[in-house]
Amino acid sequence: MVAPNDKGKGLLGSLDWFTIVIYVALLGLGWMSVCGASYEFDQGLNFFDFHTRSGMQIVWIGTSVLIGLLILSIDERIFDSFSYIIYLGLIVLLAVTPYIAHSIKGSLSWIKVGPFSIQPAEFAKFATSLCVAKYMSHNDYNISRWFNFAVTCLLFLLPMVLIVLQRETGSALVYSAFFLMLYREGMPGSILFAGVSAVLFFVVGVRFDDVPLWGIQPVSAGRFWVMLLILVFVLGLLRVYTRRLAPFLLIFFYGIGLTLAALFFSKYVLPFDITWIQLAILLFTSAYLIWLAVKYRFSRYAYIALFALGGLTLHYSANYVLDNVMEPHQQTRIRVLLGMEDDPRGAGYNVIQAKIAIGSGGLRGKGFLNGTQTKLKYVPEQDTDFIFCTVGEEEGFLGCAIVLGLFLALILRLIHLAERQPYAFGRIYGYSVMSIFLFHVFINVGMVLGLTPVIGIPLPFFSYGGSSLWGFTILLFIFLRMDAGRNRFTHK
After folding, report:
1. CA geometry: angle at 263 spanning 262 and 266, to 5°?
2. Residues 242 and 389 both lie in one domain
3. What is the DSSP secondary structure assignment for residue 369, as one 8-state letter?
4. Are residues 229 and 149 in the same domain?
5. What is the pLDDT of residues 10-45, one digit of tens each?
């Protein structure tokens, strides 16, 4: 039975003020960073001039606060009731955007609205989060059913594809963060493991494809290590998911044994490409596992075989995808990131200058407005995608630690709020919000430090611009409104 809660706290008493304080602190530090990144030595301290980037950021911050207040004044049940309608509206908008958008640096994701431009992709995040939460919160939903899981993936893959058509690959990749939420909601860890493995196989295979293994000229180090990793992972999956010793021992002894014997023979007797031996081992292993699956009617053997065959397919197609599917600038960025090319005046320029700016800040930084790399405009996109380098140069290591500490506090708080939701809808939406913020912070800071590819996504509440700031504010404050209304009803 459900009865009204009589605690009578009201909206102000139910709001999570800790999260709001973090939000305000990030807005303030973000505005200071935009001031530092856009300031020029000869322009004077005109931060409140609406003709400057810092002045316009005040407008975006002010309107974001108003949007947040408006969301808090809405009954939180509205978001549940209109989730599908909001999602369909954003999907239609994403679909028509390439036809009505004006091109900005090759991207067709910006729509002109009077004197301003908005990016619908930023607002599709909260719409998709609401829709996914609504669908997954149905009473008969079960993530272990393939139909339910496939529909859930389709809900966030659809906007992902539409955004790719706008030539915004970075914004599209953000939607892969939903897999973190799915893992919390019961998605098998094997799917997450398969995704991480795919990235590992791609990186190792591409990076070391032309490197000979230990001086054995016919043997590609990349191919050897990828196939060995696939074999080792197959053995690990067998032990974890089947717990049957006989297949594990058979594959271990003939797989590892033949690999080591072929490696020794190729190194010390007659050089030959032992990766053909590895390929034969993995194909025979896959066939053997499929036979076991049919014989014992145990599908996990088939899934492990599918993992092995999928890993092989990914590895042998990786170079083709890199050379023929990806755009030239994406190819160059990946090769520079992996150390395959040195392009200090091209694709590697942004990262090199960002590292110089952050490193020059030292422990305490050069002080507000005293950065030289940023003031002399050495770092491209320094007030948008690469704004974190301004924090590093002006505020130093301590400033970076404070900013990252605030983001960590926000993410941990979102996890806490999500776990205390009484209904699946609020919990799922909360974890979607957390996953999106985590992805943005990790990838943005990582690309500034040269740890992740440069894919062009903003740092929440820091990067200049109205669309991203509004989008993140809506995403966060819808969840805060849900959390504030969690005590509307109690179960008896």
Report:
1. 85
2. no
3. T
4. no
5. 788 889 999 999 999 999 999 999 988 887 766 666
